[in-house]
Amino acid sequence: MMTTVSQWFADHAHLPRFDAELLLAHVLDLTRAQIIAHPERTLTERKTATLHRLAHRLHANEPLAYITGKREFWGLDFAVSSAVLVPRPETELLVELALDCAPQNATVLDLGTGSGAIAIALAKQRPDLQVTATDKSAAALDVARRNARVHNVCVDFIQADWFSGLTHEWQVIVSNPPYIRPDDPHLEALSAEPELALVSPPDGLHDLAQIIIAAPIHLHAGGHLLVEHGYDQAAAVRGLMCKASLSQVSSKTDLGSVERVTLGRQG
């Protein structure tokens, strides 16, 4: 007996509805709107079997982006794999603020680029920018380079551990580094994502501190450093920036009214 879309939803009511709709859209090669508009649509046995297998992965807390192989960020589709962190909507604030800080033809450095989402969004929005992006993971850089080719942007990708081996100065430096404590209870729900991109022992601030302390020697006079951090880390990050002699230090809130990005100016 053929299964309909509405029946499949009823059988998988334990899944988040939005994710279930996107999963169906992915397998059936339809839009989410088409899935919603035609609940009477029938599913072949082959599609039903595929959906059963993928729904099991989703129920096991594997991110939908890893299952479909893509995630939207800044209005662009990015290929993702288990080698990279899944781009989050709140990180779009980092892109927005970096664009505000960047003068015409500015040089921009994205540290720990992962899928390349931040660097590529900046280059796509502002083709005048000269964007460099680093990551210590060769596998992550492979994903980022593929995304840059798909979106037809020019980004210089370098394998490096933060500023290691970099000798240039930039007008804007951005980073969404690991900032979760090893004992954070939220980590259990993120177990499918690369731990190196999430966790910063021992207190969640180690990588942020490394970046902030080293940033001034890599910033042009008047240049800006912008970092994403955890919901309860803004005050600590502001302190680190002030200690690094950055000026005009401030934290900005995301759409959830959480202080999500802190920035400072060189000189």
Query: Could you name the CATH class of the largest domain?
Result: Alpha Beta
CATH architecture of the largest domain: 3-Layer(aba) Sandwich
CATH topology grouping of the largest domain: Rossmann fold
What order do the strands of the largest sheet run in, or round the barrel if closed? 7-6-5-8-9-11-10
The proportion of residues forming helix, as a percent range, comes to 25-40%
Would you identify the regions where 5 or more consecutive residues have pLDDT less than 50? none
Shape: elongated
At the fourth level of CATH, the homologous superfamily of the largest domain is Vaccinia Virus protein VP39
Decide which structural class fits the backbone: alpha/beta
Terminal-residue CA separation:
71 Å
Major sheet details: 7 strands, mixed
| CA gyration radius, whole angstroms | 20 Å
**What is the average of the pLDDT values?**
96
H/E series: EHHHEHHEEHEHEHEEHEHEE
Short descriptors:
267 residues, alpha/beta, 2 domains, 11 strands, elongated
Write a structural description.
About 35% of the residues lie in helices and about 20% in strands. The protein contains 10 helices and 11 strands. Helix 2 packs antiparallel against helix 4. It is elongated.
Quick overview:
This protein has helices spanning 5-11, 17-28, 32-37, 45-59, 64-68, 92-101, 117-125, 138-150, 206-214, 234-243; strands at 3-4, 42-43, 70-73, 76-79, 107-111, 130-135, 155-159, 170-175, 219-228, 246-253, 259-266.
